[in-house]
Design brief:
It is built from 6 helices and 9 strands; from the N terminus they run αβααβαββββαβαββ. It is an alpha/beta fold.
């Protein structure tokens, strides 16, 4: 908010990732997580820093047209859409790619599984494994996926924290909560979950 004060001659280009609103985007769209008045007020407050700083910005950049469209109409002529880009020299298919993970079977903590491009693999990757990122929908789909694709290995990468939305009950994580929904009889030898920089 104070860049213009500290560097008055510098051009200030603001990165505009997301403009929160009480309806039509990330709040109140799921009946399982309804928005109450408190949540709606918190959402509006989240925009305060952007509102104050963009007033003094010379221009704005949004990664996608949809993200740009979330901002007030009066702002949009000052916002350019510029995708972050993908480093395709590094992020590209490889015939020799392989990945070794520890098994989830708690009876053998040293068991490992090496996967290659010849294996059937389904991935879910997020900074944190939380409902805001659709994690609960994914986890509830896992039994049906496993039934229809029994050879598939499912890899989940993410931490047990919460970046957005409400937190789970104390002493648990959303990952643990939704794995418990599977029940004790559900096999998990096909399921690997990397969390807090470790694999399980």
């Amino acid at each position: 908010m104070f860049l213009k004060d500290a560097f008055p001659l510098a051009r200030h280009i603001q990165y505009l990732e997301f403009f929160y609103s009480a309806a039509g985007a990330d709040v109140g769209f799921d009946p399982e997580f309804p928005a109450n008045q408190d949540a709606i007020c918190k959402v509006r407050i989240k925009n305060s820093t952007q509102l104050l700083s963009f007033e003094y910005a010379d221009a704005g950049v949004a990664p996608t047209l949809w993200q740009k469209s979330r901002y007030p109409a009066s702002w949009q002529s000052r916002i350019s859409q510029l995708h972050d880009g993908i480093y395709t020299t590094m992020v590209c298919p490889s015939d020799h790619a392989s990945f070794t993970v520890k098994q989830t079977d708690e009876t053998d903590t040293n068991a490992e599984c090496t996967l290659t491009r010849n294996d059937e693999i389904l991935t879910y990757v997020a900074r944190n494994l939380e409902p805001y990122r659709g994690f609960y929908s994914f986890m509830r789909a896992v039994p049906a996926i496993h039934e229809q694709r029994p050879a598939a290995r499912i890899l989940v990468v993410g931490a047990d924290g919460v970046s957005y939305g409400r937190r789970p009950p104390k002493e648990t994580s959303y990952r643990e909560m939704y794995m418990q929904e599977w029940g004790n009889g559900f096999l998990t030898d096909f399921f690997c979950c990397g969390h807090s920089h470790q694999t399980c």
